[in-house]
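Re: duplicated header lines in exported structure tokens

Our pipeline writes sequence and tokens for each protein into one text file. With two proteins the header for the second block appears twice in some exports. Here is an export where it did not happen, for reference. First protein block:
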Amino acid sequence: MSRIVQRLRYRLELRRLAARPGVTIAPDAQVSARTITMKPGCQLRVDARSIVEAVLDFERVGAVITVGANSYVGASIFKCAERIDVGDNVEIAWNCSIVDHDWESMVWEQRAVDMREWYRSEKNWTHVPVAPVRIGDKAVIGFNSIILKGVTVGEGSVVGVGSVVTRDVPPYTVVAGSPARVIRRLEATGSARPSVNMIP
């Protein structure tokens, strides 16, 4: 397929996405529309000069995903049942998973009901823990990392490659590991920005 045809298809897909209720995409943002699935009442906002290449899976009616200005979200996946917010000047590398829920109950009887409902493309969320995720301004998320429900990654923080983040990350802090733990503190101003490939 020629580049011209690819560009035309991209623009058409993006125009269709931007025309949906609840969707706001800045004119100079770049969004991979074909990797986004939305249910009724969901909201998506992507601000100026941001690039979103990730799969955005809105799993429940009314779920919200926002990406601030001048941010980059690589070929990762967001599974959103309530809310995932990405701030300004954020870098999220490839193959990251950001999830605001547990997906399943710990109780087998409830999981058994869920499996029967999946067959009918249904999902009961009443017994599934859900809590919003927030990635603060200027944060960096290294590739293959996982951010779990209820986590806030503070401003200017760095999540090392392959980390599993289960707790809040303080601002200007490097965390790494599974589960992620604090490696060191960063200067709030005047320090060089780390690379997304950084291994602490």
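Second protein block, exported in the same file:
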Amino acid sequence: MAVVLDAFLERVLQLIIYTGGTFDLFHSGHVNFLAKCSLLGEVVVSLNTDEFIESYKGSTPVCSYSEREQVLLSCKYVSDVIPNDGGADSRPAILEVMPDIIAIGSDWARKDYHSQMGFTQDWLDIHNISLMYIPYTANISTTNLKARLADRNRL
């Protein structure tokens, strides 16, 4: 029985987990998310470029791409970081990584994540990629941190 369990654990530890995002103002919610992802396998982060963030959100990130990349690479839960050069179409970055699982926060569970990322469930099925929701850490986000800073600056 132990041999079967060992073989299972070896396979699980070989899984490639893809996640993407901006990861600006790295915080405990990011750490919790990446730690949970790392329990599934090797984590590769597709990091949004500064240009994409500006076009999508209408403002530049606080930290530059290279600063955000450096922080992510220093995180013990992250194996690699690649640029999300496809912008709203995440398929090129996903195909570059060829993950077993795409991990996203559970805050996306009731949103149209497939359209947001530029793929369909059929596309995931063709590439044998699973989508997994990871529990979201409540009450912490980059938006929340920016609001806290704004409140403190008003005093």
